[in-house]
Amino acid sequence: MNEILVSLFLLVSLLINLSSLDDLFIDLLSFGIAHFPFRRAAAKPAPLPKIAIFVANWREEDVIGKMVEGNLARIDDPQVSLFLGVYPNDTGTRRVAEALAAAHPDRVRVIVNSLPGPTSKGQMLNEMFAQSFAGEQAPDLVVLHDSEDVIDPRSFEIYARYAGEYDFIQVPVFSLSRRRGAYVASTYMEEFAERHTRELIVRNALGAAIPSAGVGTCLTQALVRHFLKTRGQVLMSGTVTEDYILGIEAKRAGFKSIFAALSAPAEEGADYVATREFFPQRLEASIKQKTRWVYGIAFEAMHKLGWQGGLWDIYFFLRDRKGMITNFLAPGSIVLMILALADLIDPETLPREMYHLFQWSLSFNLLAVVFRYVARLTSSYRVYGRLDWLGVAIRWPVSLYINMVATFRAWKIYLGESQFATSPIVWSKTTHDVPDDFLAATR
Q1: What whole-number distance in Å separates Cα of residue 166 and Cα of residue 164?
Q2: pLDDT at position 237
Q3: What residues contact 207, with CB distance under 8 A and at least 6 apart?
Q4: Distance CA 394, CA 375 (A)
């Protein structure tokens, strides 16, 4: 048993190092882009076209009113309207939505699904696209958002600027600041800060496909009509991460995409033009949400999208999908380390050359942990303007645990319930939370 556990320990350590080298590569590229940015002609200012914000809803009567009123107070341009998708049998949400449309007839439109709910977010959005683009008076741009989003009013100017060249535009998404005791909800702060100030910027610079974050995603009328014409729907049906898939499909269809990470100097950190929101506070809710993400991106998208694309597309497919394995490595290595410290396993029983490799590998593991901590800390600083040394250290193991359990559940669904990602999975909604003061919600 000792030989098996020690060999497993070595294998886990080597896999962690391989994944860490991958992360380090992204870190170095993002550092280079930040300090020696690739120069491209700046998009010229453009008048706002007709922009529709699509919000799909199911039992959102508790938050949709505050979300719409709060964002309308932030967005004072009449060219921007909110389209609220509701189900005929969701009387609570429909009642609130219709009251909002009556109070703001020029800014709010209600679209009633032809099917009773719940179906899926993708089906609801497809229904909204079909009804909105049935005639000639369709919006010029569509922006996808959720019912808990705090929308940055400056983002619409960015969409208008880039829409002349790009048909798929994604702006950063960040978690709103959470109190120190909210250990689950605050894990999203570092995760989104890292991804949207590092990885997506690198993807954009290398010309890889830009996946949609589900919110803060802008589509031009040309892109929408292309999908409606070629397949009768914009989002792939029968999927749980239809937004991620949409970004990949937009590039494959020949449309240009961009990750528009624009920021202005601030007293602390950087003032990003970004969508912000609260993420789940409860452990079970977070695990359920992460399970959907891991299953949809790592398993379902692999079956639906395959591995087709350019070199960098394939590389980022590997990064997107490696979590099905790597999310188990750090917790597993901690357990094995505890067993070693308790003298329940003895690495010195390895052959001499293997033992030296083991020592080297563990040393690199430790160095990789330091690099990852610094990366999370600096990413958080860029977004939130403070160096939360202790908070980042405390939240990191919580994040590792959530991702591990979510990945285990995703594997269980993939192997047992989804017939290897070929059968649609029905998902229950995540409970949403919105800030009390939308005007003050900037970080």
Answers
A1: 6
A2: 83
A3: 310, 312
A4: 15
Distance of CA 427 to the CA centre of its chain: 17
In 3D, which of 158, 185, 183, 182 has the Cα closest to residue 169? Answer: 158
Cross-strand partners of 265: 270
> N- to C-terminal Cα distance for the chain?
51
Closest CA to 290 of 324, 334, 259, 335: 324
Looking at the chain, the whole-number percentage of residues with pLDDT higher than 70 is 93
Q: Around Cβ 339, how many Cβ atoms within 10 Å? A: 16
8 A C-beta contact, residue 175 and residue 279: yes
**Tens digit of pLDDT for each residue in 295-315?**
999 999 999 999 999 999 999
pLDDT in tens, 348-359: 888 888 889 999
Summarised one tens digit per residue, pLDDT across range 149-168 is: 999 999 999 999 999 999 99
Instruction: List, in order, residues 6 or more apart from 189 with CB less than 8 Å away.
Output: 174, 175, 177, 178, 380, 383, 384, 395
Q: What is the C-alpha separation between 285 and 157, in angstroms, rounded?
A: 34
Rounded Cα distance, 187 and 441, in Å: 19
Cis upstream peptide for 139 (omega within 30°): no
Q: How far apart are CA 148 and CA 390, in angstroms?
A: 28
Q: Which helix (H) or strand (E) holds 52?
A: strand 51-56
Mean pLDDT for the stretch of residues 50-57: 97
Structure tokens at 307: 């591995």
Q: What's the alpha-carbon Rg for the chain, to the nearest Å?
A: 23
Which residue from 436, 438, 43 is spatially nearest to 275, judged by alpha carbons? 438
Backbone angles phi, psi at 169, to 5 degrees: -125, 125
DSSP 228-241: HHHHS-SSPSS-S-
Query: Are residues 421 and 300 in contact, defined by beta-carbon separation less than 8 angstroms?
Result: yes
| pLDDT in the model for residue 44 | 73
Cβ(188)–Cβ(289) below 8 Å: no
Largest CA distance in the chain: 78
pLDDT band at 316 (very low <50, low <70, confident <90, very high): very high
pLDDT in tens, 265-295: 555 557 899 999 999 999 999 999 999 999 9
Element (H, E) at 83: strand 80-86
- Which secondary-structure segment (H or E) carries 132? helix 121-132
